[in-house]
Amino acid sequence: MTSAMLRLVPRTLPSRCAPAALRRTLFSHRPSARATEEFDITKLNAKRRDYEQNRTAFLAAGALAGIVSFVYTAWKLKQALDGSGERSKLAVKCDAPSSIPTETFKTEAGEKRKVVLHDDEGREIIPTGHGLVKAFPRAIELDMPTARQGLDRNEASMAASISDEAGVEFTLVGLGMRTVTFIGIQVYLVGLYVATQDIARLQHHLVKKINPLATTLIPTEKEALRKALLDAVEGDETWDSILQESGCRTALRIVPVRDTDFHHLRDGFVRAIQARSQRGTAYNDEAFAGAMKRFKVMFNRGSVPKKKELLLCRDGAGALSVLYGDGERTKKREPTREVMGTVDDERLSRLLWLNYLSGSKVASEEARRNIIEGIMELVERPVGTVAAQVV
């Protein structure tokens, strides 16, 4: 019995050790193919690249949507502001206000002509095309302080405080709207006036530039003059010589179409003057610096409501006078204007005028082009005949 049991022992030992051997086989020899796939560097890089591309596309789409919404909002705001201005009452009284055209010029026989209307008092007006300030007077009378050289201080102050019931007549050449920012927010209307008595001088200098022997220009010569005035360099040279040599008395009439202030207007004028004065060394002296200082002091004032009138006047010697008033005429009186100050240095007024007349960048491109069209009306007539027709 004992020997039989001993013989059975070796047979049972292998069966007891089999599970241990089986466990070693299962845990010691796991296949590693799945781990290799999970840590494939090429696939990871591809996934990262796709993620970055999708992220960049979403960010670009969001930025584009933001820009579009900003532009759309600004455009709607501009439309709302323009609509409120159009609903305001007219600045000029007329028999039929709704019939005032929006075009400043009309074409007759292939040539552009200013549209001239009459208000209820029979005065000639030029439509501006704006809903708030419907028209500019074709002619204004100005008594420039720089012409009162024979008055003492008390007489000059008394003359400046009363209404300008008489003075030199100025005739409108052209006008346009001054806009700012890329959406074209309208700020003020500006018109160039020339003393009626000095129109012949202006005609003479413009005609002689194209044809020294002529007294008027034919269509091809007019086109050559138009091209010259529109050219940035040649236009600068032409107007610079006219302002210095012709002795023409001129005025810039500025009427805001929205509420503004004197500091805002001054900053625009000063930037324009400084930008042009840096082109040469003719303005690097104490006299010009003093003139700039006096010009800035004039505008140390408050607000400028819409439809008020600011007049920048340049006499025959180039001296600048700045007048401010209500800009409205009635049957009983002319507009009341206050003299803000004067500057004798002609270089300052010349640079300020060039900011509206010539160069690669002007304060109002619309005003520059309309002024040139007005010039074309002058040079097609014999020198000296336009003033007689206006008077």
Give, in order, the helices and strands: HHHEEEEEEHEEHHHEEHHEEEEHHH
- Could you give a short account of the major beta sheet? 7 strands, antiparallel
CATH C-level class of the largest domain is: Alpha Beta
- Please state roughly what percent of the residues sit in beta strands, choosing from under 5%, 5-15%, 15-25%, 25-35%, 35-45% or over 45%: 15-25%
Shape summary: globular
Q: Could you tell me the mean pLDDT? A: 80
The first-to-last residue Cα distance is 157 Å
Q: How many beta-strand segments?
A: 14
> Under the CATH scheme, which architecture of the largest domain would be assigned?
3-Layer(bba) Sandwich
CATH topology label of the largest domain: Chalcone isomerase
Tally of individual helices: 12
Question: What is the topology, as strand order, of the major beta sheet?
Answer: 6-7-8-9-12-13-14
Find the structural class using helix and strand composition: alpha+beta
Question: How many domain units?
Answer: 2
List the uncertain runs: 12-22, 88-98, 149-165
The radius of gyration is: 39 Å
Helix share bin? 40-55%
